[in-house]
Structure formats: C-alpha cells, structure tokens
Amino acid sequence: MSKNINPDWHPILNPEFEKPYFKGLWNFVEEEYNVAVCYPPKSELFNAFNSCAYNDLKVVILGQDPYHGQGQANGLCFSVADGTPHPPSLKNIFKEIESDLGLNYPTSGNLERWAKQGVLLLNATLTVREHEAASHQKQGWETFTDRVISKISDEKENIVFLLWGGYAKKKSKLIDTSKHYILTSGHPSPLSANRGYWFGNKHFSKTNSLLEQNNFSQIAW
Questions:
Q1: With 70 as the cut, is the pLDDT of residue 122 above it?
Q2: How many Cβ atoms from other residues are within 10 Å of residue 210's Cβ?
Q3: Backbone angles phi, psi at 183, to 5 degrees
Q4: Which of 20, 96, 120, 132 is the most buried (most CB within 10 A)?
C-alpha cells in the first residue's frame, strides 16, 4: 500500500498500516469497493498525502466525509475534479476568499493547487458509498486520521489548523496549541454559512499572516 503514497509520509503512515485496526479497516474498504460504488476512486484515496509533501506542510484543513456524488470526490477535502460543478460548501469557501482577499472566483474547484503549496486537505473518513453520507464512518478511518493529526502536532511546529464546524473543532484536543495555531469558525455549508457562522471569518488572510510571521511562504489561495 505504502508504495503508492508519497515517501515523505512513510514514517508517519507505515506504522499505522501495520496495526490490527487498520488491517480490519482495509478489509472493510476492499469489500465495500467490490460490492458497491464508492468514492473517491481507489487510485485517489490517499491523494491528501500524495498532493502535499510532509516536508512542505504548513496548513491543515479538516473535513469530515468525501463527497458522495458521482465524479465529485478526488481525495482532497472540499475539493472536486476539474470541470465538476462546485458543491455548496466549496462555493462558500470561494466566496469567502473573494471577500477576504479580493480574488476572483475560480473556475476550477480542484484544490490540488493548495495542496502543492503545503496545505493538507484531510477528511476524517477517507471513503464513502455513493449517495450514502457517513456510510464509512466508525470503521477505523477516524482512528487513522486522528493519529496523523497527533503526529503532525508532535513533530511539526507553527502549523496552522483550520477547523470549520463542530466536528472539526473536536479535533483541537489532538493539537498542541503551545506550538501550533488553530483558527475555528462555522462550517462553510449553507446551513451554517447562512446563519452567519462562516462568512467574514477571514481565515485565508489570517493564515497567510501567521505563515509570514513564521517565515513561511504564503498560500496563493
């Protein structure tokens, strides 16, 4: 499995792959992909790690589940493949960037361009059945991704964690705030955003200010 993942991440991920919980999880994933349509495509399952090198890591954005519609999920949280219509949460992310940074609304919803700059776009659960939100939760993915967050917290310094919505905010307990930054807000979903919990958070300019303070290059959002 690890041969298909950026070698940068092997010291972090390989010990998890060998644990009993992950072997049970992987058996579940293999069976699900055999009997049902699941997302993202298996080749893109670990895209978050392949697109963002561990040594370049500066920002972590946490999602919950992959998109469960056809052709949407590409292994990066909130991201969709080039040419795919933007889901509502992604639209609101781009609207906030427009307002915060004065940038034009982008054509492509593929956030790989962020990942290549050091943004880890990590869902808590990395797979899902088509049209069945949360269908692969509580099978072991959360254990795996919690370990990834904890290892990043332990081994890195001055990472900016963006926690959007109640589910993501719970992950703050895994992060050492004495050496990292946490920015929280409501989720960009319409339900939260339309109630005033998302727009105006200015997370994108705030993130770049924190990166600049620590001599990191800013993200071209």
A1: yes
A2: 19
A3: -115, 125
A4: 120
Q: Structure pTM?
A: 0.97
Given a contact cutoff of 8 angstroms between Cβ atoms, the answer to whether 185 and 200 are in contact is no
Q: Is the pLDDT assigned to residue 194 strictly greater than 90? A: no
Which residues are marked as active site? Answer: 65
Please tell me the distance from the alpha carbon of residue 203 to that of residue 97, in angstroms, as a whole number: 9
| pLDDT the model gives residue 202 | 98
Burial class (CB in 10 A: 0-12, 13-18, 19+), 55: exposed
